[in-house]
Structure formats: structure tokens, C-alpha cells
Specification:
By secondary structure, the protein is α+β, with helices and mostly antiparallel strands. It has a domain of 352 residues: Beta-lactamase. The protein is 38% helix and 23% strand. Strands 2, 3, 4, 5, 8, 16 and 17 form a seven-stranded mixed β-sheet that branches. Helix 12 runs parallel beside helix 14. The chain starts with a helix and ends with a helix.
Length: 581
């Protein structure tokens, strides 16, 4: 019995031992297989599975963030960013499509049929409306619709609305610059593209937003313009009033420092609001000061006189016979404006009284070749180099293509087309002592609060001598004191300038209109130490059309406000200070 019992116990122990061995082997093999599988997943297939996992459970939406701020010269913000929300849907999660389409359409001011089509999509993610107004988001969130989600984005915002809109331009839905300096400086202003991450369930449905906007991800530059928002507003205000008063088609005004080429103001009327640029005609978006050219009329006459003085072919007191109002050149007859019948006149009076025939006589002294060369030296016939899109070079025929009448026509601003910015630059050369300065509208680039690049004044070349410049200043002062520019006169300041009234050329009829004109005045103040050159052009005013009546008063109002704002002392104030000293 004892022996059998021992045998039975031994057999039992052997069985347990065998089972333990089998279990141990099984566990070892299982562990080895598990480790192998984990190694395969973690090492061999890691990248493939990670990408697959991201695709299945994490969705990303690309958005633009951190576009650079645009400032005026005194660091007042002209273009900035605001955080807004955009609306998307996960169509598979929408319970009642008809009801959802109706609520979305009403809340977001959209077409219901178009919304219904979007939410019926088989895709996992569909934008409904980007960068919504706060009122729209508030209304929609109250509805608590299933399948509707919200993502944070940044929207470009122009806090001064219409102010300098044609200069600033605007951006598209993805913050890409489409016009103005927003377009020209896109590479610097564009900011960075970030991916907002949305978690998805096993079926690929968005369930929450995980990503956010981080200021540290900004890569853009801020841009400082030469524009002064106060002078810009002043120019726009008075220009708009005059355009409306005379029911004109449009108007332009430019204010520039003649010594540096810095542009303080660039006004276009009609205006538009870049926050809602799509609500305005594309024609209004255009900055006509750089992108359009016009026959300048009599404001071009100082170019002829300056050329004659610089070549020392004439002096301001030299006398010319103005043919009593009619001059024959070939088969053409040139007359004076308003049927004036001028006889003998000095060069000074020819410019002051704006005699067409007198200026033709001066141009004939200069000659075709030299006159053409001076026109080019003053910057006409080529782009000014201003960093704004769509700049025109104007229209200037090569001298070899001039007809027998071209010299005469161009001398009083016909048969040539110039941009307003070219005209301002040219008169600045007369005002500043004879140097053509490159006009510019960008002052500096800022990165992380520090100036990283400054745009300094650039002299292109000398156009006329300092002596000729001083002579022209005196001639242009007489235009305002005793000539056609009396309405541009300012109390306490000497003003130099020139009026212009150009008949508009009709391309369809091939002739000049007898009813449509461009009225203009260009001048600078203080005349003997100029701080500002100002051009005012008003296109097709109704009723009165003379530049002396329509444009000169706008110059006066802009100059008066701008000089006071810049603390430029009047002659009376200077005398008072000297007396006190």
C-alpha cells in the first residue's frame, strides 16, 4: 500500500511538473510573440502606422496666422488682425439636414439651397462660412446644432475703414495680399501657416478642436508706411467734398515731402472700405495716382520753362510775342484758353497767366531734342519706382516719332500722358533745388518690435541747376500772387504752384472733348523752404471746370491744415518769435 501510495504521489508530481513546463513554454512563446509583435509595431512599422493613425483619428485644417501689422509713420495701426471663428460641418453627424440648412442659412446670411448641398456632402469636413461676424456666431451657437463645429482664425481688419484704402489694398480669405501694399509686401507680411488639429472618432468624424493659435509661431514683419493718417484724412476729406460739390467722376490728391520723396497722403475718390471690398466695384479698388495716366494740361508748363532756364536759353524777364491769341503751325491753329488775346509777355507772365502760345514759343527755343531729354530727366515716360502694384509709366512718344505739332502740343500738356505721382515728383525737383527724388511709401520693417530695415530717401539724379530751381520758384510764386492760382494763396505763407485745365481726349471720336476736363492744381509751401508738394486733380467736374476754381481751393485747405499740423510757422509767427528774441 505504501509503495503504491508513493508511486501515485510521484506520478502526480511528475504531472504537475510537466504541466508547469508546458505552461512556462507557452507563456515564454506567448511573451516572445508579444515582444516580437510590439517590436514590429514600434520599430519596423512605426512610421507607417503613425501616419495611418493620424489619417484615421486626427484631422488638420490649415489656417493663416500672424500677418504683419501695417502702421502709419507715427505707428498708428492701419491694418491689424482680429480673432474670429469659422463654421464647418461634419455631414454624417447632422440629424436633420433641412432644419440644419435653414438655421445655418439664416444665422450666417447664406443661400439655403447652397448650404443644404454642402451639408449633404459625403466628406468628413466641409467649410460653411469662414471668418464670421460675432453676431452670426452668437446666433448659431444658441441653436446647438449637431455636426456643426467652430474653428478660430484670424481676419484682416482695417480700423480706419476707408482711410488710405487704395494704398493699403486688402487680403483674400486666406490672408493673401490682393492689392496695394498688402500685395506688394506679401512676402514680408504673410505671417505663417498653422495647422489646427481636430480629433476624430473611429469613423473619421470631428469631435473636438485640439489646436490653438500661438503668438510664438509668428514669422511676419510689421510694415511702417510714410503715410501720416492725419494728413491722409485731411486730403481725403477736402477732396471728397469738392468731388461731390462739382459732381465730378473722381478725384486724386497727393502730398509729398519734396526733399525726401516720402508720401504723406495719397487720396482717391470714390472710396471703398477694404473690410468689405467685395461690395464695391473693382474699378474703385484701383489706385489711379500710380496706375492711371492723364494729359496734364497746363501744370506741365513749368517743365518747359525749367528746361529753358537750365540751358540758359532764356531768363524770367525775357519777352515773347504771344500772337494776340492765335498761332499757326502748319495747318493747325493754336489758341489760348478762354479766348485770351495776349501780346508781348515776359516768361514770368506766360507761366503766371498760363499762355499756351507763350509756352510754345519757349519750347521752340529749347528745341525738340533738348525738350524730350528734359522730359525724361524729370521722370516722365518711365515708372517712378514706387512700391505699389500696377504702376503706369505714362505715355511719351519717342522723339523721333514726334510730328511737327508735337513740340507745341506737349509744351502745354497735350499729346503726353503722365501719372499724378510722376507730376508730383517732377515739381518736387523744381521745389527742392533741382534733384529728382524717388517717391516712396514704405518707411521701415519691424520684427519682434525692433526696426530691421529702414527705407531711406534716394536721389535719382540732378535735373536742373539750383539757379534754375530758384528762378522757377519765383515764377511759380507769381502764379499764386498775381496769376491764375490766386485761390491757392495761404495767409502767412508764400505758395508756389500752377493751375491746369486739360480737355479730355475722346478715344472714340479721336478728338478732344468740349465738355469734359481734368481740373488740377499743383504747388508747394512754404515756397522758399518747401515742406510739402501737393497735387489735386478732379476728373470731369460739372458746371465750372477751371483748375483755378475747382482744384486750387482744395490745395489751399489741405496745405493750411497740414502745415499747421506739422507746426510749420507762418511768416507772422516767425516775425513774432524774432521780435521776442
Amino acid at each position: 500500500m505504501a509503495k503504491n501510495k508513493k508511486q501515485s504521489t510521484g506520478t502526480f508530481r511528475d504531472g504537475i511538473k510537466t504541466r508547469l513546463i508546458i505552461v512556462s513554454v507557452f507563456l515564454f512563446l506567448f511573451g516572445a510573440a508579444l515582444i516580437g509583435r510590439l517590436a514590429s509595431l514600434q520599430i519596423v512599422q512605426h512610421e507607417t502606422l503613425l501616419a495611418k493613425s493620424d489619417k484615421q483619428y486626427v484631422g488638420t485644417v490649415k489656417t493663416q496666422f500672424g500677418r504683419g501689422v501695417i502702421y502709419d509713420r507715427n505707428l498708428n495701426e492701419l491694418a491689424q488682425n482680429i480673432e474670429v471663428e469659422s463654421v464647418y460641418v461634419t455631414p454624417s453627424k447632422i440629424l436633420d439636414r433641412k432644419a440644419a440648412a435653414r438655421i445655418l442659412a439664416v444665422s450666417l446670411n447664406l443661400d439655403r439651397d447652397k448650404v443644404y448641398k454642402k451639408i449633404s456632402s459625403k466628406r468628413d469636413f466641409v467649410w460653411i462660412k469662414r471668418k464670421c461676424d460675432l453676431s452670426e456666431i452668437v446666433m448659431l451657437k444658441k441653436a446647438s446644432l449637431s455636426g456643426v463645429g467652430f474653428l478660430s482664425e484670424q481676419k484682416r481688419f482695417y480700423p480706419k475703414r476707408e482711410l488710405a484704402a487704395n494704398v493699403l489694398g486688402f487680403v483674400g480669405i486666406d490672408n493673401q495680399g490682393l492689392a496695394g501694399v498688402e500685395h506688394t509686401h506679401q512676402s514680408k507680411l504673410k505671417g505663417t501657416t498653422i495647422r489646427q488639429v481636430t480629433e476624430r472618432d473611429a469613423k473619421g468624424r470631428n469631435i473636438q478642436s485640439l489646436g490653438g493659435l500661438r503668438d510664438s509661431s509668428r514669422k511676419s514683419y510689421d510694415l511702417v508706411l510714410t503715410i501720416d493718417e492725419v494728413i491722409q484724412y485731411t486730403a481725403e476729406y477736402y477732396l471728397k467734398n469738392q468731388v461731390e460739390r462739382f459732381k465730378a467722376d473722381s478725384g486724386m490728391a497727393v502730398v509729398m515731402d519734396p526733399h525726401t520723396g516720402e508720401i504723406y497722403a495719397m487720396a482717391n475718390v470714390p472710396q471703398f472700405n477694404p473690410n468689405h471690398y467685395g461690395a464695391f466695384s473693382q474699378k474703385i479698388w484701383k489706385n489711379n495716382i500710380v496706375a492711371s495716366s492723364y494729359e496734364p494740361g497746363s501744370i506741365f508748363k513749368p517743365i518747359v520753362a525749367a528746361a529753358a532756364l537750365d540751358k540758359e536759353l532764356a531768363r524770367p524777364q525775357d519777352v515773347y510775342f504771344c500772337e494776340n491769341g492765335k498761332l499757326k503751325i502748319g495747318n493747325a491753329t493754336i489758341g489760348e484758353a478762354s479766348d485770351h488775346k495776349f501780346g508781348w509777355m515776359t516768361m514770368n507772365d506766360i507761366i503766371a497767366k498760363s499762355s499756351n502760345i507763350g509756352v510754345v514759343k519757349i519750347a521752340q527755343q529749347v528745341g525738340k531734342k533738348s525738350f524730350y531729354e528734359y522730359i525724361r530727366k524729370f521722370g516722365f515716360g518711365e515708372k517712378s519706382g514706387l512700391s505699389l502694384p500696377g504702376e503706369s509709366a505714362g505715355q511719351l512718344k519717342a522723339q523721333k516719332n514726334w510730328s511737327n505739332l508735337s513740340l507745341a502740343s506737349i509744351s502745354f500738356g497735350h499729346e503726353i500722358a503722365v501719372t499724378p505721382i510722376q507730376m508730383v515728383s517732377a515739381l518736387s525737383a523744381i521745389a527742392n533745388g533741382g534733384n529728382l527724388m524717388e517717391p516712396h511709401i514704405t518707411k521701415a520693417l519691424i520684427k519682434n518690435g525692433k526696426v530691421v530695415q529702414q527705407f531711406k530717401p534716394k536721389k535719382i539724379h540732378r535735373v536742373i541747376s539750383e539757379k534754375a530751381s530758384l528762378q522757377m520758384v519765383e515764377i511759380l510764386k507769381s502764379v499764386v500772387k498775381t496769376g491764375t492760382g490766386k485761390k491757392a494763396a495761404l495767409d502767412g505763407f508764400d505758395v508756389a504752384g500752377k493751375t491746369g485745365t486739360a480737355q479730355k481726349y475722346n478715344m472714340e471720336t479721336g478728338s478732344y472733348s468740349g465738355t469734359e476736363y481734368i481740373s488740377s492744381f499743383i504747388g508747394f509751401a512754404p515756397a522758399d523752404s518747401p515742406r510739402l508738394v501737393i497735387l489735386v486733380m478732379i476728373d470731369n467736374p460739372k458746371g465750372l471746370h477751371w483748375g483755378s476754381v475747382v482744384a486750387a481751393p482744395v490745395f489751399k485747405k489741405i496745405a493750411k491744415k497740414a502745415l499747421r499740423y506739422l507746426n510749420v510757422l507762418s511768416s507772422k509767427e516767425r516775425v513774432f518769435i524774432l521780435d521776442r528774441a
